[in-house]
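Margin note: ligand = D-xylulose.
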Amino acid sequence: MSKTYFPNIDKIKYEGKESDNPLAFKFYEADKVIAGKTMKEHFRFAVAYWHSFCNGNSDPFGVDTRVMPWSPAGATPMDAAKYKLEAAFEFITKLGAEYYCFHDVDIAPEGATVAESEKNLQEIVGMAKQYQKDTGVKLLWGTANLFSHPRYMNGASTNPDFEVLCHGAAQVKAAIDATIELGGENYVFWGGREGYMSLLNTDMKRELDHMGQFLRAARDYGRKAGFTGPFLIEPKPAEPSKHQYDFDAATVIGFLKAQGLADDFKLNLEANHATLAGHTFEHDIQTAVDASMLGSIDANQGDYQNGWDTDYFPHDVYDTTKLMMILLESGGLTSGGLNFDAKIRRNSVDLEDLFIAHITGMDVFARGLITAEKILTKSAYKKMKAERYASYDAGKGAAFEKGELDLVALRDLAAENGEPKSISGKQELYESFLTQYI
Ligand code: XUL
Ligand code: CO
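Resulting structure:
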């Protein structure tokens, strides 16, 4: 690398929980083995290109606050894209994350025509491929941004104007090509404006069928072009659309099944999107796990007082512990990873803040993993949960699960056995395990 963008920061090391160095890991030890896998293998951490290297921390009330040395004034868009790429690989390498994720327009500027946009993307992808080779950093997933450009104000694949849909297809084709070229392990669709602002002007059924047809076309193209990983849909209930079709995990699973896409698609679940849908993050993760459709995770957290997508870096160890309990019990991530789809606060203007945010995020997951493993192996948690359902393990309960009892047989058992005894759900005891082992 020719230029340094983070000159005062060396490779981040593990120093343990007594360290007071803000630029060191306190809990994340990449090669430490827990529950049969290294921490690195459990998490497969990824850096989100858009928040870390493109987002200047503007908000609806003010312009950028961040100084990004990789975006010098006066640079041509292609030169700026090259500086940004160089800075990104320096950051990811120093942090010690294994992966990154991008949208097409994060890494290369759109051109005036489809062909020019494709050319820009191909040029940057060629450079990214070399950086990946030099550093060992890998691509977790690629995606196309089908929501920022004004043409997508009424949606992309659900746009009432077919010509807009075609532009979305052009971007998705190029982004799939880029993902394949860079060895990306997944390909993501987040339908930012695939939804509606008002049903008065919206034919919902037609739009949903268009989205299904668009995704089938993308899948067929990707498979033909040699992409073997999963396609992922990232649910979110709203924002920027009032109502987004990919509302939550359960909605997307139903949609994928109805559209014949369930064999090729899984879910990319984001914490702050689940909470916006009125769920806990664990709820959406468990929903996907139970349907064998958990693909990957966008790690972040919302704000308890706010009803929008704040995309804070994760910093709540109770949340990560509950998540890691599910991942440990279900076999964990396979082709997916933990992508920090998170942004530093508007007033976090020091270059080191981006490191501190990622370090804290990695540490809070490491601590969650350590705690989850203890709860699962040392506490009565698993035994209690299994025993809670013991009445279905044998006898008539087991016969019911096998479908051997009809409604009349169930009625007769109620009459025969009388009023059931009251059994405690022990929720406070379950909660105490978290406090005890954190
Ligand atoms: C937006 C969001 C996106 C997707 C990728 O809320 O999460 O950044 O992760 O398009
Ligand atoms: Co996301």
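Residues 197 and 266 are 26 Å apart (CA to CA).
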